Each structure stands twice: as structure tokens, then as C-alpha cells.
Amino acid sequence: MAESLFDSKEWKEVESQTLQLLQELIRFKSINYSTIDSGHESKVCEFIRSILIKEDIECSEILESNPGRGNLIARLRATNPDPELKPLALNVHLDVVPAPVEEEAWKKEGWKFDPFAGHINEEDGCLYGRGAVDMKNMVAMAISIMLFLKRRRVPLKRDVLLIALADEEDGGIHGAKWLVENYPADVECDVMLGEGGGFNFMAGTMNIGVALGEKGSMCYKLIARGPGGHASLPTLENPIFTISKVVQQLTNGQLRFILTPLVEEFFANVGSLLPFPKNRIFQQITSPTLSNIALYLIPKDKQYVFTPMLHNTAVPTIVQGGVKNNQIPSSCELTVNGRLLPGISQEEYFRDIRELLGESLFNPVPPSDKPKLEIEVTYFGEGHQQTTNDPRVQVYYRVIEEIISKHTNNTGRAIPFLLPATTDLRYFVRHPTRVPVCFGFLPVLFPD
């Protein structure tokens, strides 16, 4: 695209424009504190809308699910529309996870620069700021793409959408989920690009990951109960003690091995690129009996990424228990973040959790007949996956393959993979009238 549509001088101008946009976007403190009145994405929507409207790019009004929680749909109309083709959509979210705002606080937490300044460090040439990678970089790219296509009058057979969303960092309830439920016709598309992939998987190479699926996400509480009492009379029935053992088991244990088609395809692709004996080690990662041994033999930073592709996970995140120093509480709650491989139900997941922790914890205990440990689910969203064997996926995946090959002088290739995390794409793959092909593809090259 860079070579065929504009010269190097124009490319530099687009780069400069996109960088400036990213700096301005980072300066919006669109922090999602997981509260209804945080995020303030409407202010970012106003900024984006003002830029696109000036170029006569069609924009919706700011669509607020709640006051301040804005979403925006921009549409670049096809110049030579093909009635068989629905739009291509660029999916971005505008909120960011928390970072300190005050200078004393961000310095104390180890930030070199103000997280909301969009500072470019002259020493390493990198831009620093909350959202620089997740994902205001793609917001800036998407705006630049819309501007470029409009200014250059690029012939289009289908509409191009920019869908800017609130609340991705807290489950997308006030963003993607709300938009799909309330404006399904406005976000209908054939193919959608979002976050989750687009980075080089192997140091020193241009082998780029393309996410064709995501794990499901679940938030639940494990609630331990006991008789309570005075702290001068210690007891093993202390709920805090029960939860401490649960945390240890979840941290040191592992849920069962599960191999999905997309993950099998991923390891086959990566293995084919490696020399002997690394390729043989990779072949064993998909073996139920040898997987952990093979993972142990590869670098730890790769273990960290690959292991969640093969297992459901349960990560303790919050512990709440006790109200007074000299009182043994009657309950203690552990909040757990669970990630489920595509196709796994809640029932299957919790069957594995009960097996890991011990069934006796969940059995009724007399005289109350209540279990020592109870489960309370607060959120659940299913995972999804596609594979390159799907004809609909193939059409668009080949385009990504060709672009990567062309711009790496045939040294790089696309690698389909399962994202161990979850993005807003989860709601669009369940669109009520038209399910798009969804790719996690946010081009960014990390230093080796």
C-alpha cells in the first residue's frame, strides 16, 4: 500500500500526522476505573469527530450508553459500491487502564515520563504514555487511514467504518456490547480489524501474529465461610486460612491440557520456521503428555505466552476478608479472573476447578449444610475462534499474508494464533444479523 498509493515524502507526512494524533489522544485522561462515571470517552469522540467532519467524512452523533461513556461510528462511503459487499470495519477502544495522574505518584510508580503527556524520548526515539500500545496507537492509525482514503479519493467497492468504543478495559458493557445491541445495522460489516495481534512473534524476524480467536473471560468469587470467633482462640476453620490455601493451589496448580484447532495450527506454523532441534521441541508442545516438558525447555518469556493457549486459567486478583484486628471473620472472598478456551462451558470449567481444589471444599458441612467454599459468578463471556481453513477467513487472510510478505521482502509471514486475552471483537462475532470475519491485527513492531 505504501508503495502503490503514495511516495516516500507523503508517507513521511502520514507518519508525522499519525504520531501527532497519538500524542494528542494520549493526553486525554480516558481512564477506566471500572466505575460507571469513569472513562470519559465522549471527550475523545468529540476530538475524533471534529477531525473527520472537517474532511466531510460521515459521522454519527456521539452515542452515549451513559453520560460521558461515548461511542462513535464514522463511515467512508464506497465510491463504486458492490451490493454484495458489506463494510470493512476498524475497531478501536478509547479507554485506558489506570495510571497515576499526579507527578509525585507516577514517579513513585517508576514512570520515566508523565503517562498522559505523550512524551517522545530523544534517547531511544520511543513515545511513552498510557495507551501508546493499548490502544490509542490504533485509534491514531484508524483516523489517518480514513483521512488518507478520503483525501486521495481511493476507489472503494465497500464502505469503510471506524468504530470507536468505550469501556473495553472493563468488559465493553458500555461500549461494544451496548452498540451491537442498540445499533446493529450501523455496525454490520463483512470483516473487522481490531487489537490483539500484529506484532512480531519471534525476535529478529518479521513473522507477524494474526489473532483469529480469543479466550473467553469470566470473573467469579470463591467465598469461604466459617464460624468466626475471637482471634485469641485460633482455628483451622478461619476463612482467611481457607482462602490462602486456595490461592496457593490456584497459583501452583494447572488446569487440564486442551488443544484447540487454532492453537494446533499456530504451533505447527511456528515449528516449521525453527531449525533443529527447536522444531522438534515445538512439535511436543501440543502433546498432552510432553507439553509441560517441552514448554520448560523454551525461554520463560515464551512459556508465559504459550501456556495459556493450552489451558484454562484461574488467576487470583482480589482478597477481601476481616473487619477487625482481634476478630476471626465468618467469611472471606477471593475474586478470580478466569480465562476459558473457545468451546469450554462454565460447567466444564468449574468441574476442573473443583477437581484442582478438592471436591470436599464444595461439599455441605454440618450443622449449617453449607459448603466450606462457594462459587459466585459475576461475569461470563464465551471465547471464539476461526481457522484459515474457513473459506470466508481465507479471502481476507490471504490479503494480510500478501501485505506482510510484500513489505518484508518475502522474509516475513503471517502466523494465525489464539489470543489468551479478550477484546471487544467478542461482541461482533455474535452480531445478530451478520457475523464478520474478525482479525486481531494492530501492526506494531516491538524491539528485540
Characterization of this structure:
This protein has 448 residues and is an alpha+beta fold. The protein is built from 14 helices and 20 strands. The protein has helices spanning 2-5, 8-26, 41-54, 103-108, 136-151, 176-182, 239-252, 261-272, 278-285, 291-296, 300-306, 346-357, 391-406, 425-428, and strands at 58-59, 63-64, 70-76, 88-93, 119-120, 127-128, 160-165, 191-194, 208-214, 216-225, 229-230, 313-321, 327-328, 331-340, 364-365, 370-371, 373-381, 384-385, 414-419, 437-440. The strands form six sheets. Strands 1, 2, 3, 4, 7, 8 and 20 form a seven-stranded mixed sheet that branches. α2 (8-26) crosses α5 (136-151) and α8 (261-272) packs antiparallel against α9. The longest helix has 19 residues, at 8-26. The chain starts with a helix and ends in an 8-residue tail after the last strand.
Question: What are the salient characteristics of this protein?
Answer:
32% helix, four-stranded antiparallel β-sheet, alpha+beta, 448 residues, 14 helices
